[in-house]
Structures are given as C-alpha cells and as structure tokens.
Amino acid sequence: MKDLLGGKGANLAEMTNIGLPVPPGFTITTEACNAYQLSGEFPEGLEAAIEPALADIEATTGKRFGAQMNPLLVSVRSGAKFSMPGMMDTILNLGLNDETVQGLADLTENERFAYDCYRRFIQMFGNVVLEVEHNVFENILEEAKEKQDVHYDSELSPESLKWMVGEYKKLIARKTGKPFPQDPKEQLKEAIRAVFRSWNNDRAIVYRKINRIPDDLGTAVNVQSMVFGNMGNDSGTGVAFTRNPSTGEKKLYGEYLMNAQGEDVVAGIRTPRPIASLEQENSQVYAQFFEIATRLEEHYRDMQDIEFTIERGKLYILQTRNGKRTAPAAIRVAVELAREGLISKEEALSRIEPGQLDQLLHRRMDPNALLDVLAKGLPASPGAASGKIVFDADRAEKMGNSGEKVILVRTETTPDDIHGILAAQGILTSRGGMTSHAAVVARHMGKPAVCGCEALKIDYAERAVQIDQTLYPEGTMISIDGSTGRVISGTVLMIDPELSGEFKELLVWADEVRRLRVLANADTPNDAQKARDFGAQGIGLCRTEHMFMDPARIPIVQAMILAQNISEREDALAKLLPMQEGDFYGILKAMQGLPVVIRLLDPPLHEFLPNVEDLVVETTELKVTGNDPLALRNKEGLLRKVRSLTELNPMLGHRGCRLGVTFPEIYAMQTRAVFQASARLVQEGYMIHPEVMIPLVIHQKELVMLRNLVEETAKAVMAEQRVSFEYKVGTMIEVPRAALTADEIGTVADFFSFGTNDLTQTTLGFSRDDAEGKFLQAYLDKKILENNPFAVLDRNGVGKLMRMAAELGRKVNPNLELGICGEHGGEPSSIEFCHLIGLDYVSCSPFRVPIARLAAAQAAVNNNVQSK
Amino acid sequence: MKDLLGGKGANLAEMTNIGLPVPPGFTITTEACNAYQLSGEFPEGLEAAIEPALADIEATTGKRFGAQMNPLLVSVRSGAKFSMPGMMDTILNLGLNDETVQGLADLTENERFAYDCYRRFIQMFGNVVLEVEHNVFENILEEAKEKQDVHYDSELSPESLKWMVGEYKKLIARKTGKPFPQDPKEQLKEAIRAVFRSWNNDRAIVYRKINRIPDDLGTAVNVQSMVFGNMGNDSGTGVAFTRNPSTGEKKLYGEYLMNAQGEDVVAGIRTPRPIASLEQENSQVYAQFFEIATRLEEHYRDMQDIEFTIERGKLYILQTRNGKRTAPAAIRVAVELAREGLISKEEALSRIEPGQLDQLLHRRMDPNALLDVLAKGLPASPGAASGKIVFDADRAEKMGNSGEKVILVRTETTPDDIHGILAAQGILTSRGGMTSHAAVVARHMGKPAVCGCEALKIDYAERAVQIDQTLYPEGTMISIDGSTGRVISGTVLMIDPELSGEFKELLVWADEVRRLRVLANADTPNDAQKARDFGAQGIGLCRTEHMFMDPARIPIVQAMILAQNISEREDALAKLLPMQEGDFYGILKAMQGLPVVIRLLDPPLHEFLPNVEDLVVETTELKVTGNDPLALRNKEGLLRKVRSLTELNPMLGHRGCRLGVTFPEIYAMQTRAVFQASARLVQEGYMIHPEVMIPLVIHQKELVMLRNLVEETAKAVMAEQRVSFEYKVGTMIEVPRAALTADEIGTVADFFSFGTNDLTQTTLGFSRDDAEGKFLQAYLDKKILENNPFAVLDRNGVGKLMRMAAELGRKVNPNLELGICGEHGGEPSSIEFCHLIGLDYVSCSPFRVPIARLAAAQAAVNNNVQSK
C-alpha cells in the first residue's frame, strides 16, 4: 500500500493491525495529492471522506474535534512512498483555538502545557500554512524569555506563553491581513493543502533529485490524533533504531527528551539523552518499548527507525520505518539478519545499495598519524575529511563547485542547507545528536560528520569559530573524523581502506550468485595488486598511454612523434621498448594466473606535445622583443609541428587504432614489449594471460591488419625466445560503426570490450569535456535526460548498440568474450544492464571492484538468472 | 563472357561470330591471369592449350608461327572486363626473328616494311617484356635519322632499319645480359607473362582506383594474327567512333594514318587525318567500314569505338568497344538511340553515369567576354578552365594538391602523366588528335582539354612555352576552352550552365520513373531560384547560420552571444528578427507552392566570435609592450569570454538544438521570423509551405520541448496577423542516438531529414576536418575503406542506422516523411541507397539537382520498383 498511503501511512495502518499502541488516525492518499497538484483543488469527494474518518477517531478516543470539553487535537504529516526525512511539512496540535486551548488546560489540569501547545501550533501553522517566516516567531520567543529572564523554553510561565499566543496572533494578522483561523476544520483543510504543496518545495525537489525519486509520486497525508510528550516530566518523546545505524551493532540506539514534543529531538535544538538512560528513568516503559522494537524488526525483517511518545507514562508508537544507515551498518545488519535467519543470503545482498559502499572504499585517517586534536564531538557519520572552514551552505556550494575542499561548520543544519552539505567534504555542528538533521543527512550521503561538538563557539557575524581560546577564521584548514568524533587542525594523512569481516562475507555470498566476472582497470603493478586484493579477476583495461607520460620518458616520446622519417621514429621507439617491456612485466607478474587486457596506444599524439596556446604566447613574446631570432625560429618550428598535429575535434581524430594504421611501427613496438615481457615471465615459470586490445576500431579490415601485426610479432618473439604462450587479440567497441558491424568485426576478434565512455560520446554526440561544463546540467534540470549518461549507462541509446553488438558478435563467433571497460563498469545500474545483455565481465577501477561484485550479484538475484 | 575473356576478347569472339573481317586469334582468360598473379607461374594446362590455338590460326591463315616461309606474326594485347585504355601493355609483330624477318620481306616483297616491323617489335618487346627504358631505343632511332639525314621515321631506308635492328639487339644484350630471344614460342610466353604483370603496374592501379574497378578482376590476353597498316601507301590504320564522342552527333568520327601501324594513331605522335578523308582516298574501303560501323552499333546498341587496319587495301576490324564519350555526347547518344528505337527510355537513363553530368553543370566561359586568344588547337574535351601553366605532371600534382589551379601543358601526354591530369584544371598539348591519350583521358575525367595546338613551342629545359614571338614562363595564367579549342591569355569570366534540349528530355524521362523527390539545399532566394530552374521540388535544407554571418549582422550576433543577461540577449535578438524575417520572406516567396525546410541555428556560438589564437597574440603583444593597459584589459575580457565558449570537440559540443534548449529565446526569434514571413506571404496571396527543422536531436524530450515552442509561436503569430497557414515541424537525424530511438522521436516529428554529414562523423567517430587532412587517405590507400565515407554513403555502418531509423520511425508514425539533406543527397550511389530504404526525397546543392533526378531514376529502374 506504500504507493497509495506513503511509507508512513502504510506502516501506521500495519502497526495498528498488529495491535501496537498507535494513536488513531487516517491517511489521505498520494492520488489525492497528485490530483491537487494538477488542479490546485481538493479532488471530488475528499472533503466528504474526511468527515467520517474524523468521526472514527472521535469514537475511538472519546474526544471531539473543536469541542471545548475534551478536544481532539491532531497531527498532520506528510508521508511519501520513499522516506524524505525533514523535507516536507508537518503540523502538530491542530485543532487548538482560543476555546479548545482552555478545554485542554482544564482536561490536563495544566494550563502551561495547553498554552505551550497552542503557541507551538500557531507558530507551525503560521510558518508552514501561512508562510510567515520562522525567525519572526523566534524573536517573540526570545523576547518572552528575556522579559521573564529565563534561559530555556521549558522555564516559560503560563503567563509568558499566553502573552506569546497573543503576540503570535497579532503577528499573523499583520502579516497575512487575516486573523488566525479559529475553525479547526478550516485549520485541517489548510494544513492538508500545505502538506500537498510541500511536495514541491525546493528542499524536497533537491532531495528527490539527489535520491532519484520520481517527481510524480506525490505524498500522502497522515492525520493522527495527538499524544503529548510535553505534558510534564512523566511525558517525553524520542527516536530509536533497533540497531546502531552507524555500526550495525544489534543494540537499541537512540535518544529521547522528557517533557518535549515532536521535532525537538530530531531538530537538534536541545541535546537529548541516550535511549539506554530510559531503562533507569522508566524501566517499565523501556521494557515495553524494547519488546515492541523487537517485534517491529521481526515483522518488517529489517532494522527499524521508531518514533515514540510517552504521554503521562503511557507509550505510543508514532511511526516506524526501515532505518537509514551507514554503509558499514548496512552490511553488518544485512549479514547478521541473514545469519539470524530473518532473511536469506540473496535478500541480504539486495539490501545493500552498492553505490553506498563507495564510502567504505575510500581512504581514512592514518591511525599512526600524530594529530593535533582541537575538540571532540559525536561520531555522527563515519569517514574522514579535510577542508577549509565555511560557515554557510551557499558559500560551501560555491567553493565546492569551484573545486575547493570545504568543511561546513554550523551550530546545527536544517533542510535548507542541503546544497551546502552536498558540496562539502564533511559536516561539523556544535549542537544536535546522532539523529540530528546533520547526522542523518550526512550518513545518507556518505559524508563524514561530527555533531554536537559543544566546544565550538561559532560567531557567524565575525565568520570565525572559537575553540578554547583560539579563533579560527573562515578558510582555516581542518580535518574531521566522523568515525571517532575528533576535530583536528590542518590536513591529515589518509590510508587505504580495508574490508570488514562482514563485508568480506557478503562479497563471498555475492561471488556465489553473480554470473558476471569482475575485472579492474589498472595501469601499474601497484594498482594491479590493489585490484587483486579487492577480488578483481584480472585486468580488463591496462592503458599504455599513462606509461608514455612518465617525465623520464616524455622527451623520447616527443622525439618519436616529431621524427622526420621512419628511421628517426624507430630509433626513439627502440629506446621506449625496454621501458614498456618493464611496465608489462610488472603488471603481468602481479596478475599471474589471471588475464591482463593491454590496450595499445589510444590518445592523439598531440597530447604528448606542448600546448599550442603556450607556444603562441612564447612566440609572440620573442617576436615583439626581437632579442633572440634563433630561439624564435626554433619556437616557430615547434609551433608549426604541434599545429600540424592539432585537431579540431581530437575526440574524433587521429587516435586509437588509426595511429596503428598510419604508424604501424608504434603498435609493433608495444606489441613486442608485451610479448617480450610475457616470454621472460614464462621462462621464469609464471602463468600469464596477456590479451592485446586494439582501440577505436570501426571496420573489420583495421582489425585484420593489426591482428596480423600482433600475431607476426608474437611468432617472432616466441621464436627468438624459444618459448610459447597463449594470448588473445580483441578490440574495443567504442564507436557506433563497430557495434553496427559487430558481425564482421566479431569474426576476427577473440573479445569485445565496450568502451562506453567513448561510445556514449559518439552515440549521443556529446563531447564529455564540453557537455559536463556547458549544457549537460541544463539537460538534467529540464529533465530531458534522467541521468548523466557518462555516469549511468544510457540503456535506450548506447545500450541498444551494445545489445546489438553483443548479439551480432556472438552470432558469428560463439566463443567471443564480451566485457565493458568504460567507467560504467563500476556503476550498479550499468552493471545490471551488462548482466541483462549477457556480457561476460565488467572492468572498473580497483576501488570499485567490491561494488561491482555486489552489483553483479544483485543483478543476478533481481533478474532471477541462475548463477554459473 | 566479359568476366572471363575481357571486353576486347569477348568482342573479338562476337565480331568473328557475326562474320566481320577480324584477324583470327584466341584469348587467354582472366582466370589464368589471376592464377598467375598468385603463383607467379602459368597455371597448369595453359601452355598445352596455347599450342592447338596457335595451330588453328595457322590453319585459317595458312601461315606458320616461326616459319621462314610465310611466317605467322601475332599481336599480344591485354583486355580487361572494363576498358582501361593505354594502361596495360601490348606487343605487336611478335614472331619476328632474324630468319622470319627475311621471310616476311620475301613474302611482301618489301624489305623496308619487314625491318620496320622487326625494329618496332624489338623495341616493344625490349621495353615491355625486358624492361629496357623507352628513351634508349629512341636515341638509336634519332641517331639513325641523323645518319641518314631524314626527318620522319617513314623516310628511313631498309639499311638504316637493319642497322637499327643490330643496335637494338646489342642494346638488349648489354642491358639484360642475354641475347634478344629468337624463339617465337619463347617470345610469346614472355609476352603473355608481361601482359599479366602489366595488370599491376602503377598506371593501371591508379586508373582502377580512380574508376573504382576492383583489383581482383585480372586481365585477359588476346593473341591475334597481325595485319599490317604499314605495308605501303595502300595500307593504313585508324580509329573511329560511330558518333561524335564530344557532341554525340550521329556521324562517323575518327582519324587514320596511311602506312602506319598500331599505336601511331592513338599515341598522337603524328597528327592523323579525319576519317571523312578516307571517303575520297578509298571510297570502297570507306563504304565497307561505314557499313560495318552501322552494323556494330546496331549489334551492340551503343556508340562504338572501332580500331581498324587496311592491309594492302583490305579492311580488318581489330577491335570494337562502347566508345567513351563526354557527358553531352552521352546524353545525346542515349536520347537519340532511344528515339531511334534501338534502346528503351529506361535503358537510355541507365546509360548515363550521373557523376559525369557534373561537368555539364559547371560554369563555362562567358560568350560575351572579350578574349585575348593566343592560339587555337583541337576542341578535345569540352568545358573551360583557367590556371597557371605547369610543364610536368609531378609539379601539377604538387601545386594542385596545395590548392593552386594549374593547366598541364605538354607536347603530348602518356599514361605516366595521369596524376598530373587528375590534379590539373585542364590539359593543353601541342601534338596529338581528338583520340590522343590526352583527349581520351580528359574527356573521361570531365576535364577541359585542347590538343594538337601546334602553335605552341614548348621548351621543357627553359620551362617556358613560346607562342608566336612571345615567351610564357611556367606559372603564367592562361585559360583554355575545350569546346572551341581556344587558348586564352589570363583568366576569363565564367557563366552558369544551361541544360541542352536532350538533357532536358532525358530528365523528363527520369522524372517519369523516379520515386524519390529531389529537393535542394539553398540559403538565399537566388540559390532557391536556381534550384527551381534545375527542377528542385522544394528546399530540403535552408541553413540559417549563413544569414548570421552577414558582415552587417555579425556585430549584433556577437552582442547577442556576449549578452550578460537575458534582457541584453533579447535586445539583440529583437534587432535580428526583422532581418531574419526578410531572409525567410525571400526564400519562401521564391519557392511558392513548394515546401521549404528551414533549419534553426546549428553551429556552436563561438563560430561567430573572434578566434582565440588571434586574441592570444594581440593580448601578448599588448602585455609585452605595456603601452595600453585599457586596451589590454578589454582584450583580456573578450578573450575570457571567447575562451569560456571555446570547446575541445565543437563537433560534439554546445550546438544544434542544445542551443535551443539552453537559449530558447534564440529559437523563438528564428521561429517568429519564419512565421511572420509566412503570414505576410499568405496575406499577399502566396501559397507557402514552411517546415521548421530542429537539428541535432538525440532525445524525444528535446523535440517535445522545442516543438511546443514552435507551435506556441505559430499560434501567437497567426493570432496577431489574423491569418492561418499550415506548417510542419521535424528533426534532423544526425546523431546515432536519434536513429536508435527513432520510434520515440518519430511520434513527435512530421519529418526526419538524415543529416548524413554529421551522422557519418559520429557513426564512424571521424571528424571530417581532421580525417580528410590526416588519416583518411591512409585508410583509402590501405583499402580499409573503399570510398571516402563523406562522399559515398557508408551503407554498412551509417546506412544501417538510417534503415533502422526509417523503419522505427514509420512504425510509430506511418505519415512520417523521410529525406536526406547531407552532401550524400547529391551522390548517385547514396541516392540509390536512399531509394532502397524507402526515403521520400533527397536534397542536394542546386547544381546537383539534375544529377539527383537522373540517379533517382536509375535507382528506380535498376531496382525494378514501380514508379509512383
């Protein structure tokens, strides 16, 4: 029922069904919301349906909506299919007016409580429904506290609260030109409208964009009778997870505040107490909550995030949902739930969002580093980050987008700060707990966060933060460690990640079910070893151009390019040969027993030469000063050569195997280096599996010509070295024509490797360098494209060509091996597509190998294909 | 039988069958040639088969091969499936040796004749078979003439010829280390081998490349008994066409030389006499030849090119073939043959190679121009050209390739000059007739040529030509008129072509059978009118960017691009609006009654701004001199802006409808201009059919968005102007993704127009600018690609996408109109492909419209599809 009732509404209905203490209520469907978005009006029948639903609540609770005696108050909350915490609006205590407030006071014999509820209600209603700014209400609150000379809200007297109610009503009349509505039914209708509208507020839109939630789902609205955590010191409210959302440990984890209501806990305004304290404070309620939490986890077969309220000692469950968690927690919870028998291994695998694992596979602080620890807060979201202090989200976004690393430092964060959190390396707050907004959002985004670090004295006006006696102005470099809560001066050395025991276990399960092999893209023995450690089953892409860029080699490479004739070029190539042989020797050795796919030179040659514009500047300077005619002549000569190699569209230019066609001697040298290294390793007793990959092929005849060159070189080297070894020769499929003629190319290839970076560029006619800086964002904003096609494979366009190439290639060559080595090879949705079209392997960067292993397993589980 | 016997062999066999006087002989098949190319050896059985074939000739002629009494002499000639005149080798008089020469002398009672044959044979054999250079034989010939003090070869005495024979034999022994072979059978085998080898000489390879003749056909070898045109003044040899190969006029056309042999006529060494003179000289032979020529034309149902020899008054036909002809002649011959009832209209259409028509559609000299005529030669190949005088083929090639226009000026040309003829604008020779090498090749290539212009005194050493008393050094600009034979000083004003009556008639026939409509690409009212005159049925591509480049507009366009905000941009657009409206008004008016497809702005905006490198130079100059800080600041600002718009791969960048997505106001202005012009024309009573074309679409949603913009603008303009008109909105298919998702895009398009220039670039990953300058030639030379894919549509790659798009689009939208507007729309093979995949129209440059009409008709005829 989640589609119709939203997550919250469906859970409330279900909890009521299984007999949990849930305040009675009803849910307005997402369909009504969508109808409202279209017409701006309530759909027909909605108002009529609300009446009997309210009457049901009245019957259950014995209270009456709008009655002075025993009045029914309700909460009105959003609840979408996918949880969007804090993004949409909520109104509590609805039903209060100048009359019912008195009834509430009489009923509870607590005038202070009643007026506290009333002033909260007016503020929320005023802010959310009537759109009066938050801070003008806060000013009146501050004035009331000053007048009475108290520090905390809870110290305000009934008189102060009554005064505030009066001031709030005046404020609303002044701002809106109308008095605060006293009719509870009108309040309810307006509140429902406001929640509907909040589906399209800026925060919600950004959140959906980040989390890829479709815009047309709409939100349900939950109307529920109020229970009160602020009815005195035997009342309270809290939030708890059935397991630790940071680590996954199976232990109740949460916070509560006594004599507080609703948003007080999650808003981080007061620092709450840990849930364990409740055992001392009220062991009976704790035991009941513990029992309910266990039942809910078993019922939903997942870690739960539960909101509860204690009203005068009685426990109510307001909400439960699957708890958001860090990646390590997600893994531990899934593995332990499977071990506990609550879910199957396959289900455990499906529970992990592979993209989330990214955070585990990045670097963390070197535990042996000497740290200048400035302060300590709560370890709110694991991982470590360094960056410049920034005090507001706008500046964080601006600096972050221009490539600077920043840490967003705030007393607390609100949903309005999302864009800044997104752009920052990490978050540091001085207030708020482990379930505060900053903590929840940071964990979800996989950003490190330290929260509630009370040693910080932030002065927004001065744009500086004081810690102890020292002032740190905006721009100071700091580091935070979200796993320990430490705040550290300056930058810190980071080290490589290691996989936890549960993570390794999960990946073993993944390996059992996946059909796709996972290889890695690596250009050095070091990267190759790292890939192997992460479980890579070979190298799917070893780029040889990076080896050419080595500073010790670049002069030789340039001499090779600028050679006036073939003999000069062969001299330079002869110098490069032993260097390349050494490169391949190291990589093949590191990967012994596994395949290593080596791509021959791919980029256009001018990438190895000085830049034209620099040369133009230097030439012009020499010309204007006229001091050094010889230098000018040389520089002009170089400029001419570089210019003759410069291309208008290098992406579509003289590169890839076009270099092999025009300068076969370059490919011959590289091939010889591969095979000489292979021969040495065979002589030394290693098992090696070299595979030579020809890039940018568009026609069978290119591959025939270059395959011949490779085979002749192999034969020659084997004869010279008196060894023999197996090898393969294949091609990248990265230009549409190659995919379209795969039934020709497939006859002369041992393997196809889809180069989806280039294939995306050519299939969409998008130069990645230009698109990402210039127009791609407009395409995403205007929803012409759902995703950046360079991140998530474009199944309809590029994918269609891949499917065609796979089918055509296999038709003529049933043994053809098929893989992918573009960046999409490490992206879960793209990996699923590779599974669906029957590729044999994906290849991705070493750090993404575990993600790919999991994503490949999920693809197999979700698409119900038998594992091999 | 042409595949096996070659053209010449098949014709000889056929002529023998119909009873013509053909010297007896036999043909060695192309299969034998191909076997020889592979193994370097005669295939099994070939030698054995030659023996009885020779015996048959001996039986028919009563002569014996190698016998001193009545010796049989033979010619050994190449003969491929497709005629390759002069490209391969021929040997005449084979069978002569020191003994048989005496027998020939006795038999003919003409010692002079016998030794003349012998010295010719030794020279040919020495040159062709033994590879002794031509000019060393010529030196001996010159020496003999000097010794005897005569001017012409025919004046040499028997003694001189005998002396030459001796010298020739010594020369061969010295050069080859072996005596000249005396055994006629050995001579024959060697000669056959040499003809086989000549299939792969450089000239033949170049010729096949130019004429797209496959390399694996091989040549047949024709061995035929000799008849002698040099047996005295009652003997002769000649070449004649049954109709005039320049004009097509139905009248015998040709030349002959008395007392001459074989190649003397075509080699252009002596200037021969026109065939009409034969009627006076020998009316009986002329009548017999006339009768045979008529029979041959009727038999082959085409204009014939006939070689004949008169041996002591008896006529022999040595060869007949379909004659090469100029484009006007081809048209006239085809149309007249059809009128005469010899061929059908469809056959007449198929007879014209559409590419050849190009020469008719180019400019010619203004007949009213005042010309400084320097000399007059033979009008050997029609058309006019201007260029610098160049005296050798190598230099002509070099200058031609670097973009200079040259006229190749030679005493005569040989097959070794082909590369120079190819690179020249036209050919001028001082010797040789209408059937000389220069004339034949020039007509075939469609280049203007003036031959036999005896007023020229060419001095190769001084690199100058003297005409009358004036010396014209190499590099002097001249013009030639190949239609009149005039040689003119300097350049000459050219005028537009007009279609001949036969051409028009042929095109009417074409229009009757073709299914494809033919539209034109035109950006101005002038071009539109020209297109209409040539029979265009509308404008298939009106590019709006050329209108932006107008010098009066470019400052406004730049202001529009550099606008800091949308209101600045709209100010500039408001200034452009009336200008664009005027453009469209003119074009729509010129094409009234016919559709006009207007493409909205396509190129990246930086194309309208100054060049980065120029700005870098200017900025650096200002920086180094330091004189003008203000100018420096402005220049730096401009440079920054231009740089921010500069792209790494502009071809794949921010252009096409991406501009419309990011700057809708630009497309809105253009659309408004189209519709305001339309509204005016409707008010003025014109029938107009505007169609708006959105370029570079890759996704249905782009087209949805921009189609909405167009429709809203149309609605607004119609309301403002109180008129209504029909219009269409379609898209270019020029990126693979558009083709792949044509079933989505097709639902929102009225038409697809294949932009095959860009589609070729993206499908092959070939930047045209870079490929044509850098690596495409290597791909053609190494035969990886058969054709330049930008000239001839790549059916296997690009074509596959087109076919897919056409099918997918029509599936979802049966009314979808399909066309092509890339340059391929004017190329015959590509037009055929468009016909095959069911497009509705092709669009090409105005001058190519007649070609496209014919090619479309041929596609329909050849593919046997009923005309609409």
Structure notes:
Two copies of one chain form a homodimer. With 868 residues, chain A is α/β, with parallel strands linked by helices. Chain A is 47% helix and 17% strand. The first copy, chain A, is built from 34 helices and 30 strands. In chain A, α12 (327-339) runs antiparallel to α13, α22 (612-625) runs antiparallel to α23 and α25 packs across α26. The model of chain A has no long low-confidence stretch (mean pLDDT 90). At the A-B interface, α22, α24, α26, α27 and α29 of A face α22, α24, α26, α27 and α29 of B.
Query: Termini distance of chain A?
Result: 36 Å
Average of pLDDT of chain A? 90
Strand order of the largest sheet of chain A: 11-21-20-13-14-15-16-12
Uncertain runs of chain A are none
Q: In this structure, how is the largest beta sheet of chain A organized?
A: 8 strands, mixed
How many helices of chain A in DSSP terms?
34
Number of strands of chain A: 30
Key structural traits:
homodimer, alpha/beta, eight-stranded parallel barrel, 47% helix, elongated
Summarize the structure.
Chain A is built from 34 helices and 30 strands.
List the helices and strands and how they pair.
Two copies of one chain form a homodimer.
Chain A: H1 2-17, E1 25-28, H2 30-39, H3 46-61, E2 74-80, E3 90-94, H4 100-108, H5 111-128, H6 134-148, H7 158-176, H8 184-198, H9 202-211, E4 219-225, E5 236-241, E6 253-258, E7 273-274, H10 276-281, H11 283-300, E8 304-311, E9 314-322, H12 327-339, H13 345-351, E10 364-365, E11 373-376, E12 378-381, E13 384-390, H14 393-401, E14 406-410, H15 418-423, E15 426-429, H16 437-445, E16 449-451, E17 456-459, E18 464-467, E19 470-473, E20 477-481, E21 486-489, E22 494-495, H17 501-513, E23 517-521, H18 525-533, E24 539-543, H19 545-548, H20 554-562, H21 566-590, E25 595-599, H22 612-625, H23 629-645, H24 657-662, H25 664-683, E26 689-694, H26 700-721, E27 728-733, H27 736-740, H28 742-745, E28 751-754, H29 756-764, H30 768-774, H31 776-781, H32 798-812, E29 817-820, H33 828-836, E30 841-844, H34 849-862
